[in-house]
Design the sequence.
């Protein structure tokens, strides 16, 4: 067996010479970086604990600083006159002359600022008698030519590196990712086919939307079944509806049912400050999706990316958002739907989307995910009740009836419990609602001859109903079947956005008078009822002080003498 070569140990000789086999520190450093990385065994240290190049750089810098501060002999900075005085005193041993300064060595060490040193330096002055002066005092002198290329290079390189470092720091603070090379990479979260555990069984209250998406699930499961007949999956499916109705959950359920990879990203994550970054991310997203097709790409809050072009003409036509939208349109036209890539998006503002997104071949299929009806709310409650222990007396159907639109109810006001979900309301029913809203204030005025701020919200709601009856519903005897509504707010968002009035000031005054008439007539009717049935009012108030809650059946018994039905659930709807 051959003997392994043994590296010779470098030993400096007494004269300071270096043996031929000794390697310089620079050669050793180059070997470290040039050596191929060794294969890491399976039981090696974790990646975060491995050797890092930056640790080595920091250690080298600290070593050089320590050597410069502690191991290097101190150098005294002299004035030119002080240097000449030392020469006159025959204390200077040697001097090295350069173009701008002189450095030298004293014959004997002197103490300077607590440290003993023989080295000095001074600025060179244009003195033609300097050389004869040094010869006169037997001072050894020599010249040295300074190289100017290193300072010149540093004067250009250091500012560039500093600018680049600041730029990188700001970009990372803005969330641009891990570096310049990753700016254009897609930031979508990718879930494997077995990572999404949500199915249609976990989504309730949107049965119509689930029925429309079953076709997409079937195509992703068995694409050959449709391809034999020439069928193609929709390129884009747009989920529209109010906030909180389960659009994102429904998209995850489609991926969970189909057992395909799922890309999830928000529309706002495409848009950055630098023009072109968003477009690059769109290209990268579609490239990744086509590579692992069949899959689902879900873009949440599509309105952040797909807002109609030209909606803000002052911003011009070349901003980052529009460039990103253009790239999305191109990519949706370019990929083949037969590969099994389906684009799902969600928005609650479809009215502001660019028309090019909604044309056939792109997001041409829209699925409405609306607020659940009575049966849908009951299904949602049963879904949430799986992990909650409930009393046997709790009836989820009753709770669903008390939460239309899933708006919670508080104590301190009268809650009208509907017997069913209503989509059409008559004029008489609206007037009855006004009467109920005025009941608290009218009772205060009747009993206490004083009014309080307790009916603040009731008055606001009553004023809104009365104005809608006149302006929107055509329920005014003065105007007849005329509608003056000019509001153009979001379709699925509650807002008060309104456009310019399209009627005269005289009509505005007549509308205000008609609203006031309906309000005052209804309030007077409520006062008349309460005054006539004051005994019933005081009996109800006394009962509320005792129980704090009155159910509809008990209320009917107190007012009309009907036999009350026992309470079936602990929750209450009519409260004081």
Sequence:
């Amino acid at each position: 067996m051959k003997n392994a070569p043994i590296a010779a140990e470098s030993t400096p000789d007494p004269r300071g010479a270096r043996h031929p086999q000794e390697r310089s520190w620079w050669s050793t450093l180059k070997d470290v970086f040039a050596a191929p990385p060794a294969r890491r065994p399976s039981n090696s240290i974790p990646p975060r604990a491995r050797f890092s190049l930056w640790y080595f750089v920091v250690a080298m810098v600290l070593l050089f600083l320590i050597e410069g501060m502690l191991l290097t002999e101190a150098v005294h900075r002299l004035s030119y006159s002080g240097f000449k005085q030392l020469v006159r005193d025959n204390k200077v041993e040697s001097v090295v002359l350069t173009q701008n300064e002189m450095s030298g060595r004293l014959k004997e060490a002197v103490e300077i600022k607590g440290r003993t040193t023989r080295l000095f330096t001074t600025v060179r002055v244009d003195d033609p008698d300097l050389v004869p002066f040094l010869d006169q005092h037997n001072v050894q002198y020599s010249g040295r030519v300074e190289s100017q290329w290193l300072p010149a290079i540093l004067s250009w390189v250091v500012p560039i590196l500093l600018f680049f470092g600041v730029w990188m720091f700001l970009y990372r603070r803005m969330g641009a990712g891990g570096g310049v090379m990753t700016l254009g990479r897609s930031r979508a979260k990718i879930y494997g086919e077995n990572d999404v555990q949500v199915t249609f069984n976990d989504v309730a209250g949107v049965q119509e939307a689930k029925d429309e998406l079953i076709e997409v699930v079937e195509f992703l499961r068995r694409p050959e079944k449709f391809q034999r007949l020439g069928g193609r999956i929709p390129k884009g499916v747009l989920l529209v509806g109010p906030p909180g109705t389960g659009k994102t959950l429904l998209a995850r359920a489609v991926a969970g049912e189909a057992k395909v990879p799922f890309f999830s990203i928000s529309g706002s994550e495409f848009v950055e400050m630098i023009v072109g970054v968003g477009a690059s991310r769109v290209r990268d997203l579609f490239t990744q999706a086509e590579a692992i097709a069949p899959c689902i790409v879900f873009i949440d809050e599509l309105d952040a990316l797909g807002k109609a072009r030209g909606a803000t003409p002052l911003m011009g036509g070349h901003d980052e958002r529009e460039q990103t939208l253009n790239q999305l349109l191109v990519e949706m036209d370019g990929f083949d739907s037969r590969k099994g890539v389906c684009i799902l998006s969600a928005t609650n503002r479809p009215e502001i989307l660019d028309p090019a997104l909604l044309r056939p071949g792109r997001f041409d299929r829209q699925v409405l995910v609306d607020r659940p009806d009575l049966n849908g709310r009951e299904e949602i409650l049963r879904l949430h009740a799986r992990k909650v222990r409930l009393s046997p007396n709790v009836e989820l159907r009753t709770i669903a009836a008390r939460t239309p639109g899933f708006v919670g109810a508080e104590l301190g006001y009268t809650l009208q419990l509907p017997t069913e979900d209503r989509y059409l309301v008559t004029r008489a029913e609206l007037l009855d609602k006004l009467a109920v809203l005025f009941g608290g204030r009218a009772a205060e005025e009747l009993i206490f001859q004083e009014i309080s701020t307790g009916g603040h919200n009731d008055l606001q709601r009553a004023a809104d109903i009365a104005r809608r009856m006149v302006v929107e519903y055509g329920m005014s005897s003065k105007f007849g079947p005329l509608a003056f509504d000019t509001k153009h707010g979001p379709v699925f968002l509650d807002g008060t956005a309104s456009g310019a009035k399209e009627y005269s000031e005289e009509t505005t005054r007549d509308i205000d008078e008609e609203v006031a008439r309906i309000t005052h007539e209804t309030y007077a009717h409520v006062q008349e009822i309460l005054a006539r049935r004051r005994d019933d009012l005081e009996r109800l108030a006394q009962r509320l002080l005792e129980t704090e809650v009155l159910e509809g059946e008990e209320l009917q018994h107190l007012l009309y003498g009907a036999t009350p039905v026992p309470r079936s659930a602990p929750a209450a709807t009519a409260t004081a």
Notes: Residues 25 and 31 are 10 Å apart (CA to CA). The chain has 17 helices and 13 strands. Residues 1-26, 28-51, 176-181, 564-576 have pLDDT under 50 and may be disordered. The longest helix spans residues 505-532.
